[in-house]
Design goal:
Amidohydrolase-related domain-containing protein, hydrolase activity, 17 helices, Metal_Hydrolase, Amidohydro-rel, alpha/beta
Amino acid sequence: MSTTTPSPYDEFNHPNLAEAAFGYPAIDNHAHPLLAESHRDEYAFEGAISEAQGKALMEDSVHTLASYRATAQLSGLLECENDWEDVKRARAELPYSELCDKFMLPTGIQCILIDDGLDGDGICEDVKWHDRFCTSPSKQIVRIEFVAQNILKELVPRISSSLSLLSAFTTLFNAALAKAAHDPFVAGFKSIACYRTGLGVSPEMGSTEEVEESSKSAVKRFQETGKLRIAEKPFNDYVVRLTMEAAGKCQKPVQFHTGLGDADISLVRSSPAHLQPLIAAYPDTPIVLLHSSYPFTQEAGYLASVYHNVYLDFGEVFPFVSKEGQRTIVRQVLELCPTTKILWSTDGHFWPETYYLGTIQAREVLYEVLSECIEHGELTEQQSVTVVRRALFDNSNALYHLGLEPDVQLGIKAAQMWRK
């Protein structure tokens, strides 16, 4: 008499979907480095659950539904009281390597694409350091404004009446783009134009003199304040256009921060709808709209549905948005966006807990939303499994030309760790 070993997913109404959602390996298509051990307390840990700053972060953020849910999930793994202050105490008592392993290893992330331009002060680990948590090597996402700022700084001592700042910059910036384009370590590019002058990037060059003057304005402010921030629209747009051209030639995607961010963005200029002229002007350049474009998710889904070169990332809303809000966002992503163009990410940064929460919450919500689709007769269970695999792994693997095989055992082991 033969016996069948019960599956750990038999408790679910849709066990095949549950196995995919909770046990399939993932490619994190947009994240940032973890803090180095010597800087583990550099920032307030509340930043792991909110983009707020100042009093809004320290006094308000811990009283949201999103925070309460995150606290419960973190306390479960830390084996402490379900209380934010207890979570902070428990994590502070752990050696840093143990803390990182505890929260990174249960994620089932096979490969991380890391934008390391967030670390302007050199307080984070480098990209390759993160390989210890994955079975496939991490890749770099090049933040173009960071590259542009470094080039301008390099040019400042060389500025003279006989040197065209714009011409010199263009030569060096194009060389940097070409180098990145041919570097197998680089998976793509990233723009934070949303944080500077908004997403209404002009696809037209306009006056060369205007671009030149705006570049000089950035340099002048740097000379006066010691801080370089590209906040002049003609020059900012120019940097983006050069990147779009280079990325189109090498078929490496350009990620754009859209929607959800801290108070440094202008919310009304962060809708991806502003990118439509640029998208249309560069049909051969793959474009990834980051962070679910929340609260403009439906606009992003529309763009991904009508432009072949547009993809939609559903990240960062885990854990910043409540669970019901997350379900709504995933439903909105699925309203129009082809399931072959949906990419998942954690937007993990600084603290390993951000990777953990960004993963397990996304897996839970994917299962719940797709279960509803099955029950409403919109999908078969096998179709829902395909959607999950595409969102977590297959789409990013194809778009970024990673050439990876899914490490199924990694996903299974990770699921066993966090579902205990």
